[in-house]
Amino acid sequence: MKKRLIYIVASLMAAGVMVSCHKVTVKATTELTPDVYPQDSASFISASGPAYVALRGNVAAEYFFQQTYSTDEGIMPARGGNWYDGGQNMEMHYHTWTRDNGYLNGNWYWLSTIIGVVNQELSILGKTQPAGTAKDRNLAELKMVRALAYYFMMDNWGNVPIDTVYGDFAPRDKSPRADVFNFIESEVKAAIPLLSTDVNASTYGRFTQYGAYALLAKMYLNAEYYIGTKKYNECIAACDNVINSNKYSITNRATYLQSFYPANGPLSAGSKDEFIFAIPYDPTFTNTFPFRSNNYHARYDVPRSMGKVAAGAGYNYFGIPYTPGAPASTLPEFYAYFNDAGDIRNKQWLVGKQTLPDGVTPLTITTTKAGYDAITYAGDNTPYTYQLDLTPNIVLRQSSTSFDCGNDEVAWNMGYRNIKFYPDATSATRDQNNDIPIFRYSDIILMKSEAILRGGTATLGATALSLANDLRAKRTTTAPWATITLDSIYNERSREFAWEAWHRNDMIRYGKYEGKWGFKTNADAYRRIFPIPTNAFAVNPKLTQNTGY
What we know:
Layout: H1 10-14, E1 18-21, E2 26-29, H2 41-47, H3 49-55, H4 62-68, H5 88-94, H6 102-128, H7 133-157, H8 177-191, H9 209-221, H10 223-227, H11 232-243, H12 271-274, E3 275-279, H13 297-301, H14 332-335, E4 349-350, E5 352-353, E6 364-368, H15 369-372, E7 383-387, E8 389-390, H16 409-412, E9 417-418, E10 436-440, H17 441-453, H18 464-472, H19 486-496, H20 503-509, H21 534-539
Antiparallel strand pairs: 1-2, 3-10, 4-9, 5-8, 6-7
Helix pairs in contact: 3-6, 4-6, 6-7, 7-8, 8-9, 9-11, 9-17, 11-17, 17-18, 17-19
């Protein structure tokens, strides 16, 4: 087994957790009360598992959609009515979302649940676990899970309520973003000396000191936007704490893609070197929280004709046991960053004409002329065979008002596809084993480089240029850069972290979120944060709506 450390007892406890949304947090009750809690260190560690179980809830689906489809990185148009989903994908693309958008409601509830579960566990474990180093570390880990949830909320919604007391369900209004920032910072700083410095299979998927420093670095890099105060030297210092640990390295070009494969984890090439904090996924895990807790990337990203197909209709290139839904792709504006022929990161994309695994034989699909192009050949059932050709542009040829490309092969093959989280042929379902990284060592390197460029003081003999070139030396055979600019770093981040749900964060920091891409022209700056969703008001009437909504 590659990595299953927190789910043995976690799944048992999760079965007893019931949640109901209330203000920013959730009411959480469990069958495991203080008088029946385990009394040994190993069991206490496992008993804290529900916080991690809750954390995996929306990361690979709804949260990814909110972060990605609101940028130039990704788009999910309808295809013959499929995937319209009440217009929520269209709203993400056009920047016309309202407080009723399904992703906003789902993700607010998800993050609130994490906070509520942690508050409950801190309350019970704080009373029942014997005092000592093990208890201090366990509680510090839980506070880091809560801090990450609060960071996601602050990043997406700005001002949010702060609640740390289990059992206190009095409605309260939002706290200013600066107060939330300071709360998270203080929680993380207090947790760091109590967290483990071990980096091995036993700490994989759990917060260590280095995951805490990575979260601080991310906060400090964005602090000028969040709170109006520059904290670039603090960002550099947080990055240096990870660098000086000598626990991580930039994975080699040869193993970069494997870092995201189904077998990734604490022992796999690439991810063991770079993953500072990752969320494990396992298709055999049973989740009882009201979230997917699945990694469905291949379901959305792989072309339909490269999964399970009818006899003679195509070729199951990836060997997966289902026909992908295939609604998601990138946009030409984002794919333009992948313009270096020597860059290994180009291989995370499916573009243009496709071949069989031999790299030579065309991957052909047999349908009818109408099945291929229903607009040009309406009603023509003459057999038609063609080579799969993924085209770069999204065209709303069936209906622009319903964000619809059509329901034929031309429509389904629009858009270049990302397969960074490589399809999992070992899974019997649409779920995948691929773990999802939240913080990687390459992010530490690029955050430090950017912080120096933005005015921070260089340390450890490194410059912004040397740091960026250290990363690029492991990603491309192209000559090192001779100069560097902030735009250079932005472009490099786009290449390095594609499909990892950080692009919205980057676009806002760089002032690019109000730009034009695809069909989107809306430049409203207030949309850098999302509206407080409808379900939040339903349970907390003291909330006030964000400006502009």
